[in-house]
Amino acid sequence: MAVGPPTREAGHVGVTMRNILAGMAALLVGACASVPSAPPPPSLDMIEASLSRDIEVLADDSFGGRYPGAYGEEKTRSWLIGRYAELGLRPGLGQDESGAADWTQDFTLVRRSAKPDSSSSEASIRKGSRTVRFAEGVIGSHAGVDNPSLADVPMVGVNADLAALKAGSLVNRALVIPASELLKRASQLEQADPKAVVITTADRATFDQVAGFVARGRWRLESETKAPAIFLLSPENSTSLMELIGKNAERQPDGLGVIAYDTLLQGSIAQDVSRIETANIIGILPGQVEDAGALIVLAHWDHLGDECRSADAPDRLCNGAVDNASGLAVMVEAVRLAAREGPMDRDLIVLATSAEELGLLGAEAFVADPPVPLPTIVAGFNIDTVAIAPRGAPVVILGAGETPLDYGISEVARSLGREILPSELQAQFIRRQDGWVFLREGVSTVMVGGTLADEEVFQAFLNGPYHGPEDEFSAAMELGGAAEDTLLHAELIRYFGSTTTYPGLGD
Questions:
Q1: What is the rounded radius of gyration, in angstroms, for the C-alpha atoms of the chain?
Q2: 463 by DSSP, 3-state: which?
Q3: What are phi and psi of 277, to 5 degrees?
Q4: Angle at which helices 71-86 and 44-58 cross, to 10°
Q5: pTM reported for the whole predicted model
């Protein structure tokens, strides 16, 4: 009911009511002065300008393509830690032994590759009193040990009719397998856990093809030591081995489908070994509700460095402006926008991973030694390669249907006027980004945004500047969709950071 002006008959009452209303108004003004409302969101133009500034810095030649362990890593670390501090984040690792703020999760990468001289590795096979030695035509590698030696390892084969190797069936055994069967069994070897794998070849072309893969090696976490020794045999050595095995190959398999060959493997492997010291950069914005868990937002900071093309190329520097300076810029700006609305219920972990380009290894290092128990992380959002889509692009959830996050993401997108679309690219790319490592470990993690919404635009990037010197900053680079994705992630952080909008128990 509205209060009108006082009448002659009710003048005293009217004056009194005016006084009451005036007092209430004063109280309301005072309350507004002490608890300011959240500032309005910045315009998309302002967000684009902020993203542009950050991408230009991170993709500058002075950052050297942000290769792990190279000179650009220190500059990238300093930039990230400075921005984390500006956002009001706390060091994600607390304090180091000296009491200094600890923002870095340090780890070591190692790559072990066969030496160019194939005689650097050797193998010998003993059957009864007979021994055959292979000092030539052997390529050896071991991903988990620098220069291993093996002694008296029983050699076995697999029944060709066996559908899959059983868990633990090859422990402390050396599996003899033709190169033609390797692809079929490769995914089964991890659970079968052989001590060694001896690969035989039927011709020189096959030997050369497999040799390129075996000899190259790949980067791994140094803490990851579990791996079999690999011995690749030339066609001549393969023939000699099978002649020695003889009729053993015709024996019936045991209950595990493994055929004992009554032969023992001895061998040594000499490798070229390289190591990189690198780190994830972690900050945390503490929540205000105890035991509410955490959410995590992540983007990889690394790229391919300053020698990503041959020595005679005119430009050998891969700056990684889109992949993934843009992801870092969006992550930082989204956290800033989310944090300015005040503390959330849940902790927010802000993670910049290293070595994504070398095999998602920074994410692997995080889940191997997380600063909080993984089951307490209720939601995760990976941000990667976002400076592609224009404004107005729909939203794709990479990881749709794999987590209980889809409903909340749809609600947030709808509130911003953005449409959710499915993508046929999910199966192709879900395992090629850091979020997969978290999802594999049971942490509900997705990649959300407009990057995959237009397959033609995305493929044009992959077939063009992707992982090349052309992926560099330009004042004309497309940031419209990235700005919208920044607002989207800011709202996702607020939504999933609240125990009210997202209790953490699913939809």
A1: 30
A2: coil
A3: -95, 125
A4: 150
A5: 0.87
